[in-house]
C-alpha cells in the first residue's frame, strides 16, 4: 500500500468547501518591496518583505513573494530527504530549515464585481469576502517615471492614513498593492504621509505561460502532502483556492482565539475533521510507521511589537 506523509507547514489543513471562482489568466506580474514601521519606538528597524501582484483582465492577487520562495525551498528539502531515506526500513525523519516569518494574508480583488476576498490561514485556509475598498483619489498633474513607466500622482485617504500613489495610465489595470485600487491605471508605487507604510516598485514582467510544476514524489515512494502550502497555486491563473472555507470576520476572530488558547487541540480537531492525520515517528519526527498521532505545536511569545498597525482608527 502506498504511504502518505502529511507535513504540518506553518499550520495548514485540507478541507474543500469554497465555491469555485472563475479563473482569470495572468497578464502581468509586479514585484514590490513592502516596508512598514510597526513599532514607532524602533523606527530604524521597519518590517520589510518582498511582495508580488498577479494581474488579470478582471482580477488581481497580492501575495508574499518571500513566502512563495520559502514554500518552494521546503518542498525541495522534504522531497530530497524522503528520497535519501527510501528503503531504509525505518520511520522517515524530516528536518527543514527554520522559516522566517512572512505575511500569510493574501488579497484577491475583483473590480468588476466590486468585491475583495481576503485569504487567511489557521491550519485551514479561510476566505473572507469584503466590499471593494472605495478610496476618494484626487489626481494631480504631477508626473514621475519608475523604471521607464510614465506615472501620474494621486492622493487619497484610507484606513487612517493619507496615501500618495503613482499610477501608470498606460497599464489598464485598476488594482494595486495590498487593498489599494480605483485609479485609471496600475498603482506602481504608494506610501503614506510619513512613509511609515511604503509599497516601493521593484520590477514588472509580462506573464509567460509555463507548465505547472508537478508534485515532487520519489517513484515508488510515499506521497508527500505539504499541509499549509498551496499545492493548487498556479502561476498562470488567478483563482480562489479550492481547498479553502468561506467564513466571516467575526467567525475568523473566534477561530484565532481558539488557536491561541490551545494550538495542539485546535490542530488535532481540524485534522480529524478533514479525515487526515499525522503519524509521528520515534523522537517526534513525522514518520510512515511507529509512534502515535501526537503533535506538539508551540506558539512562542506574543509576536512582534505592533503599536502602529497598517490600518489606523479614523480620527473623530
From TrEMBL:
Secretion signal, residue range per the UniProt entry: 1-20
Region (Disordered) residue spans: 278-316
Q: Transcription: present as a keyword of the record?
A: no
- One Pfam family, short name: Porph_ging
UniProt keyword list: Signal
Asked if Ribosomal protein is a keyword of the record, the answer is no
Record field: compositional bias (Gly residues): 278-293
Q: Which InterPro entries match?
A: GLPGLI (IPR005901)
Q: What is this protein called?
A: GLPGLI family protein
- Origin organism is Mucilaginibacter dorajii
Amino acid at each position: 500500500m502506498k504511504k502518505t506523509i502529511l507535513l504540518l507547514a506553518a499550520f495548514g489543513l485540507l478541507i474543500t468547501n469554497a465555491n469555485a471562482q472563475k479563473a482569470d489568466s495572468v497578464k502581468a506580474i509586479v514585484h514590490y518591496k513592502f516596508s512598514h514601521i510597526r513599532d514607532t519606538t524602533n523606527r530604524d528597524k521597519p518590517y520589510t518583505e518582498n511582495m508580488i501582484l498577479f494581474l488579470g483582465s478582471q482580477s488581481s492577487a497580492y501575495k508574499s513573494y518571500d513566502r512563495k520562495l520559502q514554500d518552494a525551498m521546503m518542498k525541495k528539502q522534504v522531497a530530497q530527504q524522503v528520497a535519501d531515506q527510501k528503503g531504509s526500513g525505518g520511520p522517515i525523519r524530516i528536518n527543514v530549515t527554520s522559516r522566517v516569518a512572512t505575511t500569510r494574508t493574501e488579497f484577491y480583488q475583483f473590480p468588476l464585481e466590486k468585491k475583495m476576498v481576503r485569504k487567511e490561514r489557521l491550519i485551514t485556509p479561510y476566505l473572507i469576502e469584503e466590499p471593494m475598498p472605495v478610496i476618494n483619489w484626487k489626481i494631480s498633474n504631477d508626473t514621475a517615471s519608475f523604471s521607464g513607466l510614465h506615472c501620474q500622482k494621486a492622493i487619497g485617504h484610507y484606513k487612517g492614513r493619507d496615501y500618495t500613489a503613482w499610477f501608470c495610465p498606460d497599464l489598464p489595470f485598476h488594482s494595486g498593492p495590498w487593498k489599494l485600487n480605483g485609479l485609471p491605471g496600475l498603482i506602481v508605487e504608494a506610501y503614506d504621509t510619513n512613509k511609515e507604510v511604503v509599497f516601493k516598485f521593484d520590477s514588472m514582467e509580462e506573464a509567460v505561460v509555463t507548465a505547472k510544476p508537478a508534485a515532487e514524489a520519489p517513484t515508488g515512494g510515499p506521497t508527500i502532502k505539504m499541509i499549509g502550502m498551496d499545492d493548487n497555486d498556479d502561476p498562470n491563473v488567478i483563482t480562489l483556492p479550492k481547498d479553502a472555507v468561506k467564513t466571516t470576520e467575526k467567525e475568523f476572530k473566534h477561530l484565532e482565539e481558539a488557536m491561541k488558547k490551545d494550538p495542539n487541540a485546535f490542530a488535532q480537531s481540524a485534522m480529524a475533521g478533514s479525515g487526515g492525520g499525522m503519524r509521528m515517528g520515534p523522537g517526534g519526527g513525522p514518520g510512515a510507521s511507529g509512534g502515535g498521532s501526537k503533535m506538539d505545536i508551540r506558539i512562542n511569545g506574543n509576536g512582534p511589537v505592533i503599536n502602529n498597525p497598517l490600518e489606523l482608527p479614523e480620527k473623530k
